[in-house]
Amino acid sequence: IFEVLHPLDLLHLARSTKHLRSVLMSRSLSAIWKTARQSSDFPEPMPRVSEPAWVSLLFEPNCHVCFQRLSPLNE
Questions:
Q1: CB half-sphere exposure, 2, CA atoms < 13 A
Q2: Could you write out the DSSP letters of every residue in 19-55?
Q3: In-domain check, residue 33
Q4: Residue 17 belongs to what domain range?
Q5: What superkingdom heads the lineage (predicted)?
Q6: Confidence at residue 32, expressed as pLDDT on a 0 to 100 scale
Q7: What pLDDT is attached to residue 72?
Q8: Domains held by the chain: number
Q9: Domain assignment of residue 16, yes or no
């Protein structure tokens, strides 16, 4: 079931409870993230970036250095 989710939905699900986080963030289940990404036709993560971190980088509106909210490009 996890593999058919959109990668952002998978990230939100992983953040919903401590148990799901421990399960979905496990390196042994990285294939779930990869399958979800590939079925959504997203590019591969940069080297040394995990699948969940890549999803976060692609979709979340916060700077990953200072954590401040970024304004949309159209503003």
A1: 17
A2: HHHHHHT-GGGHHHHHHHHHHTTPPPPPTT--HHHHH
A3: yes
A4: 2-59
A5: Eukaryota
A6: 95
A7: 65
A8: 1
A9: yes
Helix (H/G/I), strand (E/B), else coil: 11: helix
18: enclosing H helix or E strand:
helix 18-24
pLDDT in tens, 12-32: 999 999 999 999 999 999 999
- What was the pLDDT predicted at 14? 96
Asked if residue 66 is part of any domain, the answer here is no
Q: What average pLDDT does this structure show over 25-54?
A: 93
Q: What distance, in Å, lies between the first and last C-alpha atoms of the chain?
A: 37
The reply to whether 38 falls in a domain is: yes
Count of CA atoms in the C-beta half-sphere (13 A) of 4: 1
Long-range CB contacts (< 8 A, 24+ apart) of 49-54? 51/7, 52/10, 52/11, 52/14, 52/24, 52/25
Confidence label for 9 from pLDDT (cuts 50, 70 and 90): very high
